[in-house]
Amino acid sequence: MVNISNPLINILQAKILCSIIGEKREADLPMPAYVVRDLCAGCGACAHVCPYKAITVAAKLATVDPGLCRECEECIFICPNGAITAA
């Protein structure tokens, strides 16, 4: 089984990798957005664009509520620092 638990692996890359080697079980599991703390500037762009209100920003750090995240990936595309990725 492929281990794609590293939060820096993009969900699209994970799905492609799993389809190439014939394994898709873990790639099909929900993978909410993940904030890379060292890259987050706390600008709030991600929270503003999230249609599910799954992201909050406090003390200049974004946090994703995995229970609210629906993997739309809007936050990933809008983040100017690349601080959000699929977990």
UniProtKB/TrEMBL annotation:
Pfam families: Fer4. The keyword Hydrolase does not apply. This is 4Fe-4S ferredoxin iron-sulfur binding domain-containing protein. It comes from Desulfofundulus kuznetsovii (strain DSM 6115 / VKM B-1805 / 17). One of its GO terms (molecular function) is metal ion binding. Gene3D superfamilies: 3.30.70.20. Keywords: Iron, Iron-sulfur, Metal-binding. The keyword Iron-sulfur applies. Residues 31-60, 62-87 form the 4Fe-4S ferredoxin-type domain.
